[in-house]
Amino acid sequence: MLKRLCRLPSKLPRIQSDDRLILMVAGVMVGIASGLAALALNRSLEAMMEFVHHLKDYPWAFVLPGIGAAVSAIYLDYIMKEGAGHGVPEVIYAVSRYGGLLRLRSSVSRLISSCLTIGSGGSAGPEAPVVMSGAAIGSNIAKLFNLNDRQRVTLVGCGAAGAISSIFNAPIAGLVFVLEVVLGEWSTVNIVPIAIAAVAGTEVSRFFNGNQIAFSHTGFDIGVADTVAAAGLGLATALFSILLTRALRSMHGVSSQVKLPKWGRAAVGGCLVGLLGLVFPDVQGEGYHAIREMIVGAYNGAFQLAAIAIFAKILATSLTLGWGGSGGIFAPSLVVGSFTGLAFYRGVTLLWPSIPLVGEGCFALLGMAGLISGILQAPLTGIFLIVQITGGYEVILPLIVVSAVSTTITHYFEPASFYMKDLVDRGQLLRPGTDARVLNDLSLGELIEKDCLAVTPHMTLREFVEVVKRSTRNHFPVEDPDSGDFLGMVDLDRVRPYLFDTIMYDAVVVEQIMDRKVATVAYGDELAEVLYTMDTQGLFTIPLVVNRRFVGMISKATLLDKYRKELMVQTTDNA
């Protein structure tokens, strides 16, 4: 009964012609639910870190991150039947390939696994797991309301925006992150409901936690020298964005060579992080306490200590995530970025003490924007996130400089962002407006032309001519008369000379004029690959064969006509 009531709105004529109202209402629901998920993760992390803190003095405390990571891996692999991951790539993949379809269990699985990893001392962030949770909530609410693929994708974006907005108390950052990174498109159809969800998620956070700025600081008096120096900091943050990206990938490769179960590898990585934490305590957990110290200028230690801390945090994050722990890279990127900004400031003032720079707290703030922009290759996300979580609106000019420089330089060496690299390598990233995305929304079943007349290999040319007279096609599949198996094709254009030589009518059989080496496609083939095959081999049609049986022909003309119509639909939807 409840399901029927939920599906009723989507069937109303007014809703079917203009779905903005139902997306706005559903956006509020998704934003509240994802905001509560983010709040639950935050509270759980606080409780777990408080519990673990009391065990830090024991000599065996270095194994705590290993225990947490191992339990996390066991939970994901054996209980939830999901592999370890960062969360955001899985959401992007679901949006690209499956219309945003995500399992309901994903709304809780990454919350629990990341809480175990981070709360025990692993170097990771809670943001990506909570994005996965919010996106799964949005996907399943769309399923409850019986919404179509495009509407479901919008609600997936609503869930991700609500989660990010809630965890950072930053609605604009949540909106921009989803449009720039998760969905990859800026359309009015998406912006309004996602913005509403971001506001709803933020209000949930403010209701329970108050309107708090995550990293408060005193105002900065920005000068020209600071804006110019921001360009240099952009180069530094680009360098460490590339280093962090490659370290994570390399560590994945190293850990995969170790002959241990997943939970065993996660335990090894966690224990190594625990040992590293004995020397550099700031590398464990999300690391936000270190950021707060740096922004207010209270972080002790010389330039060398800040520089070493950068590499230590990168190593700790690589050991945590690369060896099977669960969590995201948002928080580690912010920590690495703030250390980079601090080290850059101290290095510059050490070499040129006369330069009037504003202060190390400002450069720690700028460094966070540079790392986020570089590793995500999303400059707007970096700018708005740092502005909102620090309240540092006065630093907007150097923020733009450092984010733009970092993104540009990182993109030169790493054409795909951290979240999208694996998807690009596997050919699984389909962004809106691209040929691959439009073709992915079509299916071979829509393109099949079944009016082809089949012939047999022992049919004479005279009998074949009679078949040609009844057909409107130029291509004739050849089938085995006993088994029905597809044997090849007869192309009318290639055999036309035989048709005008009546002497050959009883001397030639189809088997002599058929083409056995014919390129074929199957139902599982992607249309982008089909079109590529047709282009490279100069084909205008290609047979669809399933289990050695001819099903029909795929025509390039029909394919391109369907492509044009689908493009018109998508353009209208996004207007």
Automatic annotation (TrEMBL):
Primary subcellular site in the record, as a coarse category: membrane
CDD domains reported for this sequence: Voltage_gated_ClC (cd00400)
Superkingdom of the organism of origin: Bacteria
Location relative to the cell: Membrane
Keyword flag Ion transport: yes
Record domain CBS: where: 448-507, 514-571
Entry membrane topology: Multi-pass membrane protein
A GO CC term assigned to this protein in UniProt: chloride channel complex
Any GO molecular function: chloride channel activity
Key words of the record: CBS domain, Chloride, Chloride channel, Ion channel, Ion transport, Membrane, Transmembrane, Transmembrane helix, Transport
InterPro entries: CBS_dom, CBS_dom_sf, Cl-channel_core, ClC, ClC-type_chloride_channel
Transmembrane segments: 21-40, 60-78, 153-179, 220-243, 263-281, 302-323, 329-352, 364-389, 395-413
One Pfam family recorded for the sequence: CBS
SUPFAM superfamilies registered for this protein in UniProt: CBS-domain pair, Clc chloride channel
PANTHER family per record: CHLORIDE CHANNEL PROTEIN CLC-E
Protein name, UniProt field: Chloride channel core
Organism: Desulfoluna butyratoxydans
Lineage: Bacteria, Pseudomonadati, Thermodesulfobacteriota, Desulfobacteria, Desulfobacterales
